[in-house]
Fold:
Amino acid sequence: WSAFAPDFKELDENVEYDERESEFDLEDE
Amino acid sequence: QVLLSMHDRAPQLKLSDDRLTVTGEKGYSMIRASHGVVSGQWFYEVTIDEMQEPTATRIGWSQSLGNLQAPCGYDKFSYSWRSRKGTRFHQSHGYHYCDGGYGEGDVLGFFVSLPVPA
Amino acid sequence: ELPMAMRFRKLQEHAKEAVGVYRSKIHGRGLFCKRNIDAGEMVIEYAGEIIRSLLTDKREKYYESKGIGCYMFRIDDCEVVDATMHGSAARFINHSCEPNCYSKVIQVDGRKHIVIFAMRPIKKGEELTYDYKFPIEDVKIPCTCGSKRCRKYLN
Structure:
């Protein structure tokens, strides 16, 4: 079923998302 | 005595017993001081004890409504200076402030001048 | 009758035997039962990327801009499971106003997990459904669950 959704990755368990330094930024210099 | 606040902070931050040092990990979050200021001219200093690549800090001034689960400078209630590139942030917009940033071992100074309310 | 943590560890081994994703009359694809399930049985974890709550708005806007359907499930005030791009088959579970499953947040080894449980015995071939409990809003989303007690709208 994961083939129906491109770029989708099947998981067996939760994965903690690794935030980037710019995660909250609307705009950076 | 002005210290880092035990309660006015994101719970995931690690506060030292003397409440003078804070350690963060993973995503950005915020801690504020035990006391705030309303008017006048105020200044404080921070030493960066440890900050290895690729970690970063954003330090500055925040009103009490500033979101603690975001970096300082995320919303309209806070203003910050980032270690990386020395960018200043407000409302999640980064503006050029100085060439280069700051790093481990640096001592940083933060000044605010607030008018007396009418 | 086993402790929750033990049931959860067994679930990780056996969930794929119990459920699968197939075409649904309710909406596109849905989650279906591949063997009989008992009432109260742990069915599948709603697994995905754990993100902080503050990041949900930005992600929702991004998914909307790409025309991607958003699959998020709140754990608590601080965290949300985002199964949109990384998740388990549970993301395909459809809403029904007369569901056969419910969700519960459980804690195992200090970590929280959203788990789907069976409300009643579920027979092989039945679609697994859950009550989304969307907040009431002015702009209504029609419900296609087709159940006798359908509330007509998801929100």
